[in-house]
Amino acid sequence: MSTQLSVAIKISILSALHFDKRSKRLKVNKKMLWVSIIFLIFTATNAVELSGILKLFTPNDVILSAAADNMVSKLEKEYMKYLETGVETPTFNYLTMQLGSSRNGMDKYVRNIHKLKPVDEFFVCVVCRAMVGVIDRTFRDEQNDLNGPKGDVVAKKIAMDACQRLKVQTKEVCEGLFDGHWPILRYIIENTSVNAKTICSFYIQFTFCNVADHPKFNFNLELDDADQPSIIASKSNRGRKTSKDLNILHLTDIHHDPLYEPGSLAECDEPLCCQRHKSLAIGTPKAAGYWGDYRECDLPWHTVNQAFTHIRQAHADIDYIFQTGDVIDHMMWSTSMAKNKVVYERVVKRIYELFPEVPVYPCIGNHEAHPLNLFSPTYAPDSVNSHWLYEFLYDIWSKWLPADTKETILRGGYYTALPRPGYRIISLNNNDCYTDNWWLFYNGTDMKTQLMWLYETLLAAERANEYVHILAHLPSGDDTCWNVWSREFNRLVRRFRETISGIFNGHSHADEMHVHYTSGGYAVAVTFNGGALTTWTHKNPNYRIYRVEPKTLQVVDHETWIFNLTAANIAGAAESPRWFKEYIFSEEFTDDLSPAGLDNLLEQMADNPRLLEKFWRFKMLSTDQRLRKGCNRSCMLKTICRLAVTVNDQRRRCEELTARLIKAMDSSYE
């Protein structure tokens, strides 16, 4: 350790000491001590790497939060100096160098925020807050160039400089993202008082970066539930299998990539590969497979078409199809209205061609939008409005949807339909809870409109003695779903627990489920997640078939079908993939799929790690790389917790189950 660093740490220790007059003892402010040490280390020596320091802390650590605040302040200040003078100070170069070298490759693009390691969360938090802060301060300064005719040019210069200096992504990706998203971000900055801390706190919920209070974005639905009886037990109404059960196909996250090229480079610097540089990949392990690839790649058309054709041939008894969003690929920096329309129409029309007599009920995924993830309120100006998407989708969806769905689809991409008497489907566009949807920053209470429509629709269904299936792309418990929306949605689920027979999601690319609980810990509903047809990232393609009891519309069983991508690519174009039934839920776990029955299963998983590990294998769709890596202790705890969370800051049942699982795992090692 250098003398400079040693002295710095000693000074930090002394600065954190204080004399307590009451106890007449010398005490240490631990938080102040660690924060001081961390930042004296950062500034005292270039020999210590930021990534090494961050490995000492957890994502929720108060020390990490203080460290982020300090670095954001410094980086924003130094960047403003650089923009004003053109001079790169030693502090500026050091901060940007440390951040640029700290991130863990592709992780922040192929993982959700809640799955990142602390070093990558720290990078995303600091860069988000500092650079949005720079643009915010510069843009709102009336004397600055950003307010003049050169505003867009200056903003792009700032963004591209930060992109390359901090090694955020390739120039192509950063330029594409800026060009697509800047007009909307500029409109939001011009028309709201939202600041960098609020924006990035939305984006990175439930970690050390979520430090902003959001009173303007909080709301409560006014529900007519005063006369409702107290919930004193889990919902145990159990549907039984019958000879007249409905068969519902669940397709989700198809992610067709029209540019996929077999043999192209599957390991690239961009968030999506398998599109180009075939000459560099041919004859190497980096070459993309014929039927798809486990790496950061989506599906070629021949795989999408083969999957649909197989389903048509293997399942002649499908009654309905649920398609829960994300037809468009992950080429997030190169979307356009024209491209998205062509890809979406090609995929959906093929479903219609192969299943001409089967009603299809879709919902919108976050990838359907252009720019990616952005869904505007109805009153936004035409230049930044999403109405083009809703008009396009209604034209396609209207093949199966009744005419009275047009009003709400054009308003916001949601609708309700009655496939037959007593059975109602409600399809939500819950991208208005998605934290990557920047329109949340504009007016967080806009999301209340659709939830109130959902309440009124459920109330009408209750009075008509109908049973309801709800379709929505995002699971409400994802940390990428704004917790206020999730909280109010779950209030509706609890209120209409006897009316709602099932909830169906996508987005996570995992074959999983989520149990909804009351504040008292009673299970009242279940969300089923259909996995994903795409292979992005590290998964076998899959689809699900639900067996649904025809009276109460409860799911009484389900089965998942997959093909092994490794085997399919070895055979290549000469042979179609060999789809097979991976598992039937009732045969592997339980035949009681009521909320109470599945809550009981979660307890069994918590007490029996082997049972939970089997669930995890199916959740990962038996993918070769996933199985080789296995599920360690941390993975097991996250797996059991995710099953029991549908509002991310309500984790009582998660904590109970993880405590039991820890005890069971510890016992197994004794």
UniProtKB/TrEMBL annotation:
What Gene Ontology molecular-function terms does this entry list?
acid sphingomyelin phosphodiesterase activity; hydrolase activity, acting on glycosyl bonds; metal ion binding
Cofactor stoichiometry and binding remark: Binds 2 Zn(2+) ions per subunit.
Sites binding Zn(2+) 2 sit at D326, N366, H473, H507
Q: Indicate the transmembrane segments per the record.
A: 32-54
Pfam families, from UniProt?
A: ASMase_C, Metallophos
> Any one Gene Ontology biological process term?
sphingomyelin catabolic process
What is the protein's known function?
Converts sphingomyelin to ceramide.
Enumerate the spans annotated as Saposin B-type domain. Answer: 121-213
Q: What is this protein called?
A: Sphingomyelin phosphodiesterase
Instruction: Kindly report, in one word, the top-level EC class recorded for this enzyme.
Output: hydrolase
Q: Gene3D superfamilies, per this entry?
A: 3.60.21.10
The record's similarity note reads: Belongs to the acid sphingomyelinase family.
